[in-house]
């Protein structure tokens, strides 16, 4: 197993411990847990709390985005596995500054059940909760079944926007509205070039021929829309952008945020090569990129490949997206 | 034995755990074909945990089921684990204040569990999940008032649900994305229920 | 070739173009070049300029670290190949704000020859230049042949410190002294788990068995000190730390900066697992980690593996290391 | 032909390029065993560039060599390319103001080039590099005053340098890290010089 680890069964725990030790200014483990990370100053009294969570193995998602102007607390499971409802309830309590808590997470069955159950638990403690599900992966279902889509890198923009809205003092209903608007706007599309190894499974999540790629594959190796010969960077950029543009039907003059994201192994050099084409295409379409991000923002450990996320911006979303925020993985 | 007691629970945990110790690999392999291959280990972890709290379960069935639910919730967060915990919480509500539950009430309880799981899973009958097998078991068990015939009927219900759904596609959960491939294959969660029922 | 690119021969150019397009607030191409990146406001009048350079494929090294409090200009070659003396001379001119320019780069034969030649060229134009060579890779030569060591991830700390010293208004001799002190202090050690592919070569830089690792391998695949069975994270951390501590002989109470760096594919999850052990060991030795960095700071494209850098800090170095700086890849 | 002229340069560039078009792969393979495998392509790029400026080279040897140096610098930044450019700049200094250079002066010029390369490469004779072959060529060519015998002697010098160093380890450059492995192997830069001298 070509991974650096001590024990597959403590991989997630050791990762989170190391994260909190290296960056104590940003991250703290909630008392008596090994899987719930909070801001060191959580809960922030009088602010709407924002909680996320899901499987480990996606750093900086989820834990990395805990911080001022971002998330308040996060529950992490084993690699690619949901955290427990118990841990989610702990995260919700830690995030609750008395104004209620938004649960903001990816549209995966296990996570939904557990966050629902966690909600049942904390509602008995009079904590008000709302939910926004991230479902930005265009490849995972057609537009008219949008509610079935998986959540992928679009969560980064949505975390940022929701965090800024909470920071600005909006109430729970308003923070939820803004987060839902961002989540509704995000469209993502990924391409996988190589697998990763889930520590407890010990073998690659999928296999791809040496000259193959799979367009639309999910961040846990879920099947995509098309497996084919590895294309050029420009072809890949088009394959990522075309379905997004079809889905969004942007008007000329639209402003967008763009995230060109590595799934892990793919170097940023190659993301910048993709970015050239994406920027050319959007320029040609009269779309203005007002907020580009290129780097590793939502990974699947050492998976090779990249994803593209486009989020149309109105003034409200742009303001929140570009507002200051602070965590170990964000540089505005 | 006139009804279900703490001792029945005790026996069920031991029996299912014993079977899972050998059967979990098969469940994991099956789940691996349509999902993330964690179903066997999920159940094994859940029942090992239940086995550690088994000796200290209270006589009150409500409290006993609730402790079981919490035990499962602690160690397992995969869909099936959460559904199992949800089912145990439903049973806890029914058993609250009772140390013995008439066997004749069990089919009704199972139907309530099906409803709770559907709510938790945001799913419905007919989507080829453990719900369909559990619903068939509950229906088949209706009208029986002693454990052996009831169990026998439930097993037959599960088997017929497996037969009914085998050649349909999975419509929810992780297996949905492999919908086409799932035609001709048993749903892992339904098989898990069969394994557990078979162990009792 | 499992890489996202259009043409191996334009890989470096396209990477740099994309970088400057995505982050124009930080990076600009020098006029009429495709390989020289400067701050958009370069040269900064009255400030000592700092120039680096070397092969492409190491992002964020080198180009990523151009910015206020960091480097002024950088010349980039093809992947793992030196830029030309011509390009280096252009970078030096672009960095020259009238106070002279420090050439701060890794100890590689080709780069040295070309930077020397570039120096000859610009000295004819009355630009004063000095040199500090980065030679932090403990694996590449024994301590008594320190001048033969390769430069690896230690350059990140040194860039930062030299940049802050220049920002603080020090003159060329003083900036050079501070940079030399940082360069002298840095000790690094790497481990490779898997190769990368140089675009123009089209095949992996080396091969390693499925359960093998190589301790001390260089960032271009240069041979290391020991190839062996892949160890646990704790064993790897020890194998990286031991030779560094032997080399440094730190006194109890020493303060250090620590960089746990991914060579590319290795996910940050695993760096945090390594960090736990490194922090335990340094704690036990009475050494205080005052500045930890964990992430991808000096990569070899998609190479798998990690490196550890330790830099003992006095007050001067600590002050410059923690001073503010700005570029797309730095978050203090 | 009494001395070296712009025409000699013209001929040399064409001849070396013709040879490199077929020989560059061998040089690259050799360099690949001890380094980064770019030596052949480095030289090919350099001489292709020289070939494009060849028709327009000035008669003044100083200017001609300087344009050649700049041409090489532009396309090649690998060690050998930089050394080649350095050598051409050294020749430019010698040729400055002359349209013809006495052949008898060439061995001296080569010695000066060796010195310049050692300065540029921060290296010394005896480290198993192109310097050793070039120095041997310069020494062997001493005392000859016409191009053919001089070239013949130079080739013999290069061959004997190759023999002398073959079983020694490389002491500088990329190959140093493979020092042990380099014993028994020819230094790629020395072989490159042999290929170029052979082409003339
Ligand atoms: N939303 C749902 N509603 C009802 N049953 C479900 C649901 N999701 C999954 N299941 C059942 O759980 C089984 C898979 O369990 P498990 O492997 O624990 O899920 P996962 O690993 O996808 O979280 C399925 O075969 C199905 O029977
Ligand atoms: N510092 C040096 N001094 C003298 N000759 C050198 C030096 N470095 C390399 N060489 C010569 O150059 C040859 C390698 O050239 P090249 O492949 O262009 O180098 P690299 O790819 O390592 O930059 C060596 O075989 C050697 O003869
Ligand atoms: Mg599963
Ligand atoms: Mg699961
Ligand atoms: Mg070479
Ligand atoms: Mg080279």
SSE diagram, text form:
The complex is a heterotetramer, with two copies of chain A (332 residues) and two copies of chain B (200 residues).
Chain A: H1 11-22, E1 28-29, E2 36-38, E3 49-56, E4 73-79, H2 85-95, E5 101-106, H3 109-123, E6 129-134, H4 154-167, H5 172-185, E7 187-194, E8 212-215, E9 226-229, H6 233-248, E10 255-262, H7 268-284, E11 288-295, E12 304-312, H8 315-322
Parallel strand pairs in A: 3-4, 3-5, 5-6, 10-11
Antiparallel strand pairs in A: 1-2, 2-4, 7-8, 7-12, 8-9, 10-12
Chain B: E1 3-5, H1 6-34, H2 39-53, H3 61-75, H4 79-95, E2 100-102, H5 106-121, H6 130-141, H7 147-165, H8 179-182, H9 188-199
Antiparallel strand pairs in B: 1-2
Write a compact overview of the structure shown.
Chain A is of the alpha/beta class. Chain A has helices spanning 11-22, 85-95, 109-123, 154-167, 172-185, 233-248, 268-284, 315-322; strands at residues 28-29, 36-38, 49-56, 73-79, 101-106, 129-134, 187-194, 212-215, 226-229, 255-262, 288-295, 304-312. Chain A has two domains: 12-185, Rossmann fold; 187-321, Dihydroxyacetone kinase, domain 2 (Hypothetical Protein Tm841, Chain: A,domain 3, 2-Layer Sandwich).
Structure ligands = adenosine-5'-diphosphate, magnesium ion
Rg of chain B, please?
Answer: 16 Å
Distance between the termini of chain A: 36 Å
**CATH top level class name of the largest domain in chain A:** Alpha Beta
Considering DSSP H and I runs of 4 or more, what fraction of the residues of chain B is helical? Answer: 55-70%
CATH architecture of the largest domain in chain A: 3-Layer(aba) Sandwich
Order of helices and strands of chain A: HEEEEHEHEHHEEEHEHEEH
Describe this structure in words.
The complex is a heterotetramer, with 2 copies of chain A (332 residues) and 2 copies of chain B (200 residues). With 332 residues, chain A is of the alpha/beta class. Chain A folds into 2 domains: 12-185, Dihydroxyacetone kinase, domain 1 (Rossmann fold, 3-Layer(aba) Sandwich); 187-321, Dihydroxyacetone kinase, domain 2 (Hypothetical Protein Tm841, Chain: A,domain 3, 2-Layer Sandwich). Chain A contains 8 helices and 12 strands. Chain A has helices at 11-22, 85-95, 109-123, 154-167, 172-185, 233-248, 268-284, 315-322, and strands at 28-29, 36-38, 49-56, 73-79, 101-106, 129-134, 187-194, 212-215, 226-229, 255-262, 288-295, 304-312. In chain A, the strands form 2 sheets. A 6-stranded mixed β-sheet of chain A has the order 1-2-4-3-5-6, with helices on both faces. A 6-stranded mixed β-sheet of chain A has the order 9-8-7-12-10-11, sandwiched between helices. The longest helix of chain A has 17 residues, at 268-284. The mean pLDDT of chain A is 96. Chain B is 70% helix and 3% strand. Chain B contains 9 helices and 2 strands. Chain B has helices at 6-34, 39-53, 61-75, 79-95, 106-121, 130-141, 147-165, 179-182, 188-199; strands at 3-5, 100-102. Chain B has a two-stranded antiparallel sheet with strand order 1-2. The longest helix of chain B has 29 residues, at 6-34. Chain B is globular and about 45 Å long. The two termini of chain B are 16 Å apart. Classes of the chains: A alpha/beta (332), B mainly alpha (200). The A-B interface holds A 77, 80-87, 109-110, 112-114, 116-117, 140, 148, 201, 218, 220, 222-223 and B 36-38, 70, 73-79, 82-83, 85-86, 120-122, 172-174, 176-178. The complex binds adenosine-5'-diphosphate (2 copies) and magnesium ion (MG) (4 copies). The site of one magnesium ion has 7 residues of chain B, from loops.
